[in-house]
Write a structure and sequence with these properties.
The chain has 118 residues and is mainly beta. It is built from no helices and 11 strands. 26% of the residues are buried.
Length: 118
């Protein structure tokens, strides 16, 4: 059984930093993509950052230069280092573990709350 668990959320002041972690267990077939999404109240879930099996990364324009996605392949763990946080970064952050090759899969974590406020 696959489990995806995020951690590291919490309260940060504007300009502060947080580091999110997402660990996947029970994975049999290798992951091709790991994503971080976020969803603020009243908003749709949006893609924040992506890293693939070749360590290529992509970011939403709103977080470029402030957030960094990375992974520990052997541990099936992905991180999101968030610096220079802004109040508009406040949201529930979700991890998506994905495989685009057969057999395909998508596994979501339960989310972790990030609140940026003074």
């Amino acid at each position: 059984q696959v489990q995806v668990v995020e951690s590291g959320g919490g309260l940060a002041q504007p300009g502060g930093s947080l580091r999110l972690s997402c660990a996947a267990s029970g994975i049999i077939y290798s992951i091709t993509h790991m994503h971080w999404y976020r969803q603020a109240p009243g908003n749709e879930r949006e893609l924040v950052a992506t890293i693939d099996s070749h360590r290529n990364t992509n970011y939403a324009d709103s977080v470029k230069g402030r957030f960094t996605i990375s992974k520990e392949y052997a541990k099936n763990t992905v991180y999101l280092q968030m610096n220079s946080l802004k109040p508009e970064d406040t949201a529930v952050y979700f991890c998506l573990i994905k495989r685009d090759l057969l057999p395909t899969y998508n596994y979501w974590g339960q989310g972790t709350q990030v609140t940026v406020s003074s």
